[in-house]
Give the backbone structure.
Amino acid sequence: MSPEKKEECGLFGIYGDDEAIQKTYFGLFSLQHRGQESAGIASTNGELIRCRTGMGTVSRVFRDSSGILEKLSNSIAIGHVRYSTTGSSKLINSQPFLSEYSRGQVAVAHNGNLINASLLRDEYEAYGSIFKSSSDTEIITHLLAKPTHVSKPDTLAHVLNHLQGAYCLLFLFDDRIEAARDPYGIRPLCVGQTETGAYVVASESCALDAVGAKFIREVEPGEIVTLDKRGLSSRFFVKPGTIKPAHCIFEHIYFAKQNSFFFGENVHEFRKKVGKQLAKEHAVEADVVIPVPDSGTAAAVGYSEQSNIPFDMGLIRSHYVGRTFMSPEQKLREMAVKVKLAVVKEAVAGKRVVVVDDSIVRGTTTRGKIRALRSAGAKEIHMRVSCPPIRYPCFYGVDFPTKEELLANNRDLEQIKEFLGVDSIGYLSLEGLLSCAVLPEDHYCTACWSGKYRIPVDITMNKFSMEQYQMHMFGETSEENE
Ligand code: SF4
């Protein structure tokens, strides 16, 4: 995976298992690809919610707490791995986010990005609310605690109707888990069940597999699923069918793990299909097809199968370089790429090479890989990309750079080819991409390619909007801005 574009967050929850905390730990491990900046687990014994969060990967955060994990026997837990799409990378923003209000304790875990968080925060601060983090998630707890909301027959449904943007949310109360997905279903969320009857909810089905749970179904857009002593129950906070879904198809192209199943299909199969489509649209005479591992691998297999050009591993990813290197800072990102990807000279020297990557964002890391392949003796390099040129930023939970930093912004294909130093370039068309998906074309978000944002956005917003807000109000300086 390219460090130019960052995963968002991963959620895991389990109800009714004596090893809930331990299973949450392993569930989070399997979702580690969705965020490596912080991790946390909140659990309850039915009376008290306890929460532990920390900076870094799951193994790092819970390295010294294996004893604690074994000792606690709470049967309800939720967990979170984070990459900061809103708010900076610091402990105060790590999740689950534990709060106490008039109805007791609640821990919240969020995947996505609330585009109206700043507005809501303005409103609440004007009435005296105090915020302790710069993440967009905290506003949700303030909405939950507002007395006029608490008095509603269904507080949670009422609160969710105030939120705009992309969100999958897990709420841990002392007696239950409530899992909700935004009305557009932008990010994935699914439920499953273990052999012993415990219910599991997770961002991706790979986390269900990790704890031996069977996939039941995806949480529907606009649905709240409750896991409690009565089992699994469901209700909708928007009338089903009134809003057309806008699933993030980039989840299938890049973010998700290959063995996951969501938006109606398996990720690996989808990537192979787009690789085949790419070969149909951009055929070239070559000796070998190599992927940029890992997310480009399945598309390269598809390209190779369709074109009958042999597949080989010309780039090898080091899995021993920790993801803690995947800093949000550009300088560290570049260093990380050099360390993580090595060229197999014997696979590319003297050959006409097709390089398949899932996407190109800034292009600087891709250019580095191309240079390395040239140095290793590749005769020709033909770049093939399994999605269209990314020209617009994402406001729904993916940390793309600004529009100006995107390689395809204001550059035509010839200029992109020159910038990367390749002999030819071919991007998959948007029509070709959508033709590979099982759901109708208009059920997907394509804003980063088309600029058509299904939920209207303020394009001046970025992940540090909350910090900028705080600086404006209090003169506070965030870690990243120092
Ligand atoms: S803009 Fe792109 S990355 Fe963001 S939700 Fe839409 S498809 Fe996904």
About this structure: Residues 140 and 159 are 8 Å apart (CA to CA). DSSP finds 18 helices and 23 strands in the chain. The longest strand covers residues 104-114.
